[in-house]
Each structure stands twice: as C-alpha cells, then as structure tokens.
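About this split. The held-out portion is used to measure sequence recovery: a designer receives only the structure tokens and must propose an amino acid at every position. Recovery is the fraction of positions where the proposal matches the reference. Here is one held-out target exactly as it appears in the evaluation file.
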C-alpha cells in the first residue's frame, strides 16, 4: 500500500509541475486573476458545498443507521458526490453558452438539458441500488 501511495503522490506532483509549466509558458499573465478566481470558486464549491452535503448525508445516515443500512448511505453519498462534481464541470459550459461565443460550433450541445438528464439518471440508479440492497438484505434475514 505504501508503494501505491508513493506512486500516486509522485504522479500528482508530476501533473502539478507540468500544469505549472504549461501555465507559465502558454497562458498570458493577464489571465492569471481569472484563473485564480475560478480555482478559488471551485475549491469553495467542492469543499464547502459538495463535501458539506455529502457529510450531512453521512451524519444523518448515522443517526438512522438502525433503520437504514450502511450501504444505502454509501450509495447516496456516492451519487451526491458524482452529481455535484458533474454540476461543477458542466456549469461553466452552460454559462458560456448563455453568454454566447463568436463560434457557435464551440459549444454545440444543450448542456443544461444533458446535465438534468444525467442527474435524473443518477438519482434513478441510486434509488434502484438502494432498493435492491434493501430487498437483498430482507432475503438474507429470512430463514
């Protein structure tokens, strides 16, 4: 496990160094403030909003753990985390498409509708997984 951790940390540092080199060589300095604002906004959205909601689900799930299996809580947390990250990834495209671009072929899709479809599909899949776990748990408990 220690070797895997070392490889992952080394890979992360290497990607960060490459990103820094690309930033310094390819991005004009006048764009740095916008990049910093974007990074801070994503950090706040992820660490405060998404992580806060996932933590809230975990906290509430622990309060009702006798009535709700731990696996169901994990499925709900996973669905919320994936949905939140997808929202973070797609909202910039939705905003940019609403503002408009000089070349309409850059953002050709309807990102808002696609995000809504993805979130509904994710909710259906999570609900089905939780229901399946409940059915399987009941069957295991029967003699």
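Reference sequence for scoring:
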């Amino acid at each position: 496990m220690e070797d895997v951790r070392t490889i992952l940390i080394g890979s992360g540092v290497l990607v960060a160094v490459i990103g820094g080199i690309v930033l310094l060589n390819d991005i004009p300095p006048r764009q740095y403030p916008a990049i910093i604002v974007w990074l801070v906004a994503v950090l706040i959205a992820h660490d405060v909003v998404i992580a806060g909601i996932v933590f809230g689900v975990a906290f509430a799930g622990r309060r009702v753990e006798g009535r709700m299996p731990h696996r169901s809580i994990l499925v709900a947390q996973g669905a919320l985390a994936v949905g939140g990250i997808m929202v973070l990834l797609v909202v910039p495209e939705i905003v940019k498409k609403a503002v408009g671009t000089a070349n309409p072929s850059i953002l050709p899709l309807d990102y808002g509708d696609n995000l809504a479809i993805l979130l509904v599909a994710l909710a259906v899949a999570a609900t089905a997984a939780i229901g399946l776990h409940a059915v399987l748990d009941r069957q295991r408990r029967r003699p």
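Annotator remark: The chain has a mean pLDDT of 88.
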